[in-house]
Amino acid sequence: MAELTLWEAIRRAHDEEMANDPLVIAMGEDVGLAGGTYKCTLGLFDKYGPERIIDTPISEGSFTGIAIGASFLGVRPIVEIMSVNFAWLAMDQLFNTAAKVRYMSGGQLEAPIVMRSPGGTAHQLGAQHSARMEKVFMGVAGLRVVTPSTPKQAYGLLKSAVRCNDPVFIYEHERMYGLKGEVPDGEFFHPLEGSEVMRSGSDVTLFGYNLSTHWNLEAAKALAALGVEAEVVDLYSLSPLDRAGIRDSVRRTHRAIIVDEAEAPVGVGAEVMAIINEECFFDLDAAPVRVTSLNVPVPYAANLEHVAIPNPSWVVDAAKTMLGIGG
Amino acid sequence: MDTDQKKHLLRDMLFARRFEESCYEAYVERKIGGFLHLYPGQEACCFGVMSAARPGEDYVITGYRDHVHAIACGADPGEVMAELYGKANGSSGGFGGSMHIFDVKKHFMGGYAIVGGPFPLAAGMAMALKMKGQEAIAICFLGDAANNQGTFHETMNMASVWKLPVLFVCENNLYGIGTSIERSTAELDQYKRVAGYNIAAAMADGQDVVAVHDAATIAVDHVRNTRTPYFLELKTYRFRGHSMSDGGKYRSREEENEWKQRDPVRLLKDALVAEGALTEADYKAMDRELLKRIEDDIVPFAEQGPLPDVADVEAHVLSPDLRWARGEV
Lengths: 327, 329
Ligand SMILES: Cc1ncc(C[n+]2csc(CCOP(=O)(O)OP(=O)(O)O)c2C)c(N)n1
Ligand SMILES: [Mg+2]
Hints:
The complex is a heterodimer of chains A (327) and B (329).
Chain A: E1 2-5, H1 6-20, E2 24-28, H2 44-48, E3 53-55, H3 60-72, E4 76-80, H4 91-98, H5 101-104, E5 114-119, H6 134-138, E6 144-146, H7 151-163, E7 168-173, E8 180-183, E9 196-199, E10 204-208, H8 211-225, E11 230-234, E12 237-239, H9 243-253, E13 256-263, H10 268-280, E14 289-293, H11 302-308, H12 312-323
Parallel strand pairs in A: 2-3, 2-4, 4-5, 5-7, 6-7, 10-11, 10-13, 13-14
Antiparallel strand pairs in A: 1-8, 6-12, 9-11
Helix pairs in contact in A: 1-7, 3-4, 8-12, 9-10
Chain B: H1 3-28, H2 43-50, E1 59-62, H3 67-72, H4 77-84, E2 108-111, H5 118-131, E3 138-143, H6 150-161, E4 166-172, E5 175-176, E6 179-180, H7 181-184, E7 200-205, H8 209-226, E8 230-235, H9 253-260, H10 264-275, H11 280-304, H12 323-326
Parallel strand pairs in B: 1-2, 1-3, 3-4, 4-8, 7-8
Antiparallel strand pairs in B: 5-6
Bound molecules: thiamine diphosphate (TPP) and magnesium ion.
């Protein structure tokens, strides 16, 4: 097993999939000659050439449409949107075409594209560069949404997303590309559906995904020092959410905290709570709570950003309150 | 243009250059966060156009490379700097940051970070000016690569059909981050791209502030008098990276050096020296004075400014006027 950074893991998946199938292409702004904004396609321009690693103009709406059109005829595009904030411009084609064409055509046509994009808050990037809008993608039937919290997931999810015949949106976290972790040396396809127990515990489940999973692991350590054993469940599949995994964990711990870097309304926390209600309400010892950012556009000033966005101490505090631990 | 006006422009452009360099230093010292896009190399574009327009009266909008445009509209440079520092005395109170400078009192209607977003916003302001019968015009400064967004085409069409008093200034610095215009754009001359929308257009040398001023005078007069749009392309070059995280591997040092021979500040200074209107010593004195202003006034204003009050983090999300929300009318 090699230790790779998250961006290296994504690059390896691109490389293997492009080597495997000449119809796999990557496209986006600065993915080619410049090597990718977060280096996820570094070196591949030289290896596969400009016809397969395509530098696009700043035309998100239409290059996404072009990728979808190409996918109708068998091409497997991996579209990188430089930052998820710009994905709003691509949503029309992604939602209205890619997510619906199988259905509208009665199963005749499909749009197996992968769209990858980094998002999240990353130190004072301001209101138009700090979007956490996975909830928007999650709300669209016909689209799969996955989000890696480790290099292993990043590698294996992209591999599976390319092979899967559905459109898949991969939400990556802007602050996590440098994160290191073990990735199996052999080829491996991570399931697109499911969740992963990152730490077992008996007292409370901390649900999260990508960055918030890491907050939860940190919070779990702090809670262990207080004698609380938290279970950390990583929801790498945001659509569909893993109902069974959520239920099973709550049945073990009887308490749930959902930690989300996004604002609360219409978010992951609300969905997970609904699943808990539907699946295991009578197993609960406490009302589930959410830890989310404030419901504001992300402010620029460092001190304002700090109070708007959650961190592990918010998770610890929520758990202490839930478990009635003072101090 | 008379000598006095040229000297004014020299001072403005040199100030902008020094201001941006001081932002660079503060960023390296981690006093400024987020993304920072600097303007050196392109000063003649902004000041040449604004010298032909009515700063403070005409409505100006641009992208994320916005500090100098705000200042050219009359924004206080100290407040701009304080915004970069994330301070309460910043132009947006610390809520915006480098990419989102606003000074609405000075009709600087903002910096926006989504490429191509300002095109329709500018046309919309022009529509409002038309409806209200005002003499002011809207001016939209954007880069070359923004012209590949759908908003460019859609807005040009509507601005033309609806006869909107808007001037589009394209600062064509030949790159959109790391992708050169040859690799992204089918027509290299941007002003030709609006022909299909029946919009009057021209191109000028964006390194020569007098040439920009002259071209912009025609452009501004056209918009103000005919109340129809105009598209002005300025060929220019940014001397620094796209933002602070730019490794610069996509263009050659030779190309950069060639463009630096046509530094807009130096070209104007040399012209004034050749005219006998300025000595090298005058120029040095001017430079010292501007640097002193930045060091003694502007940077301390930002450094000593108070942090925003964290209790205000939820301010500005929605209107404080809750009468309609609550049915109290
Ligand atoms: C919709 C959108 N896509 C991509 C980006 C990322 N991005 C920021 S600036 C930029 C290049 C813009 O180039 P140009 O319009 O020529 O302006 P310049 O930076 O050269 O002044 C890109 C791709 C963005 N901010 N918004
Ligand atoms: Mg450009």
